[in-house]
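Reading a protein record of the kind used here takes only a little practice. To see the layout at work, look at the sequence and C-alpha cells printed below.
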Amino acid sequence: MGRRQRPPPAGLGFRALATTSSGFAWSLGRPDNHVSLEEALAHMRAVVRAVDVPVSADFEGGFAVEPEGVASNVRAAAATGIAGISVEDSTGDVARPLFDFSLAVERVRAARRAVDASGSGVVLTARSEGFIVGQPDLRETLRRLVAYAEAGADCLYAPGIRTRDEIATVVGAVAPRPVNVLVGSDFATVAELAELGVRRISVGGALARAAWAGFLAAAREIADRGTFTNLARAVAFSEINALFGSE
C-alpha cells in the first residue's frame, strides 16, 4: 500500500519538522543519547521519506568528539536528505558537561566544512547546552554562541533559556543570525517569541512526552484500578489509520 503524502504532524500544516533524539531513543526503549550513529542516520532517512516538508535533524554531539569525526558524520547525515542539522557542545560527562571552548568551536567549524563540501545546502545549527546541563551561565553561553556564529553556524540555539531578557539578549548578540528557542512547557507563545526576534522554535521531546503522558495515564489506570476510562479518550482507530493509509 502507498502512503499519504502528508501524514501527521506535516498533515496539520507545519511547514517544517525536526527529529528529536529523546523521542527517537524512547521509541526504541532506551534513554536519550543511547542510539548509534547508524540508527540515527536510518531514522533521518525514514522521516525524510515519510514527509514532503523540510526536516531538521537533532544530531546530538555529532556522534564524535574530535572535529574530524564530527565532519565525517555530518557528511553522512547530509546525504540522508535532511534540510538542517544541529550539533551540540555537551559531553555527557557530569564532571565536565561542556566541551572546552576551543574544541567546541573547532567542532562547529568542522561541521561547517562538511556541510559546504556536501553541496547539500543543509542549515547548520550550533547548540550551546549550558542551561540544560547544570551550567546556566548566560555570559558563557553568549561567548560560545557568538564564536559558533563566527565559525560558520547558520542558526544559534541555547536550549533552556526561558526569560524574555535571556532570549532578547541572545537574539541581539548573534544578530543577524537566526536564533532557535526550545519550548518544552507553557512559558511563551509563538507570537511572543516572534516579537523577541526568535526565528525558529523547537519543542524537543515535549510532543513525545505529551504522548507518553496519555499512554502512562491509561496504563496506570488499568494496572492500579482495573478500569479503562482513559481509553475512551483515545483518538479513534479509524482516524489514525486514515492518516497513515493509502493514497
About this structure: The longest strand covers residues 84-88. Residues 10-205 form a domain with the TIM Barrel fold (CATH 3.20.20.60).
